[in-house]
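Re-running Nudix hydrolase domain-containing protein to confirm reproducibility after the cluster update. Everything else is unchanged from the original entry.
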Amino acid sequence: MTPLRCAAAVIVDDLGRVFLQRRSPTRRLFPDTWDIVGGHLEAGESALDALRREITEETGWRLAEVLVALDPMTYTGDDGRLRIEEDFVVRVDGDLASPRLEAGKHTEYRWITEAEVPDLFAGEPACLANDMMRALLTAAFAELRSGN
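Result of re-run:
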C-alpha cells in the first residue's frame, strides 16, 4: 500500500511560542492528543499547497512565510497506515489570539514556549503521537534558536 503523504505547520508567533491544538477524543487517529496544524495531501497537491490549505482550514489564518523545513517523519498511525509527514516551521497572518478551530476535530489550543514542552506531556499517556510531538517540538525550537 502506498504511504499517505502529510504536511504540517509548526506555527510560531513573534514571542517565539508555538501553536498547538488538542485533537478531539472522537478522532480515529491519535485521539485527545496535542498536535500541530496539518493533514493529508489531496490528489495532485504539493506539500506547500496542502500546508496553505490546512492552515486556513484549521485556524482561519494564512501562511505568511516558511522559515525552515524540518526532516520528514515516517510513521505508522494507530490506524495501521504508513505516513510520510513533511513538517515546516512557519509564520502566519491573522488574529493569533483567535484561531478558528475546526468543529469536531479540535477541542482547545494553546501557545507554548520551549521551556513548557516537558510539562506539556506530564500526565499524558505514553504513545506514538506524544513521542512524535515531543521530538517535533524539540527539533522546531532548536531551529528557532539557531536563527531560522
